Amino acid sequence: MGTRKHLLSPALLVAALGYFVDVYDLILFLVVKNPSLAALGIPRAEFVPIGHRLLDYQMIGMLLGGLAWGVLGDKVGRTKVLFGSIIIYSIANIANAFVVDLSTYAALRFIAGFGLAGELGAGVTLVAELLPKHLRGYGTTVIACIGVLGAVFAGLTGEILPWQASYILGGILGLALLTIRISVRDSELFEAAKSSHASKGSLWMLVRSPRRLGRYLSYIILGLPIWYSIGILLSNATEIAAAINVQGAPKQGLCIAWCYTGLCIGDATAGILSQITQSRKRSLATFLLLSLVSPILLLQSSGITLVTFYAYYALIGFSVGYWILLLTSATERFGTNLRATVTTSIPNFIRAAIIPISSVFLMLKETYGLTNAALLVGVATCALASTSLCVMKESFHADLDFIEK
Question: In the chain, what's the furthest Cα-to-Cα distance?
Fold first, then answer.
């Protein structure tokens, strides 16, 4: 199979479009949070704390789902996980349009999060195992570029359509994706691993070895600046605009669209840079430095124009465009019998990390104010991520045909 056929395979298409719907749903909540809470009769003064609480429910669902889908991915197959996760989050998405109280909304955000947790890790694992070594970075970059556009789509549709219609659209897109998934099969690496006697999808195997657990945790810590940027800077974009006296009233949906446009370009740049340099670590280090600089530029500014404000969010998005590269590297560092467990759970632990991050942010906000609290939390997450990257091994040339003992 030639390069073009590899990069146009049904597996890559399903993984990319699945991630598109995944990101659409995840970011759509940030866009429609305020109008949906207003429709439920929540006072405007409660939008920020209740919005964070609902996001926490979703992230808890993603955390638990990441573990469950990851284990299933190593035990029963990557494609079965794709099917199960897509159908659950699609149905939950549609149901979100009909909520009438806060408790139901919270429950459905949890269920949607649980379903969403399986798609990205299973897709990246499957594509990495199917593509030859020299094309892995390009394949996962395609997933990132198409998938991240789901956030741009969410930002635009959330501003144009009523919030209920936006949720229904996400569910319909997910269900339509199932028709393509039927043609996708598991990789030969997974099929070969099924016949081995090694333990598959074992969380105990993951944690019993300090070295293996350290390798796993290092990738979670490396991703903290990404979800700090999304869960703190992007989620509170309009509040930050007021705090730094932006000249104009930015729209949340447009902030998201600009940020994720930047993230799409960043993902493509990070992936291509890692291919050119033949080093995941060098590319990761470059983007980690940018992820420290860009929030400082935004939060230390004052009286900027609306155009400049949107440009800063595009830069922030670009700087955290190492998300898929991080997952690609994690996939390359673990054996076939643990690969789906790792690649599916890591992004959801990173996403769930917004719970303690936002808790610290809200606590600091009471003492230092919104912008200073955001700045302190951002510097702390970048410091932790930098330490983690320093202890990582290079994974670019890794052969994926091995089993964890």
Answer: 64
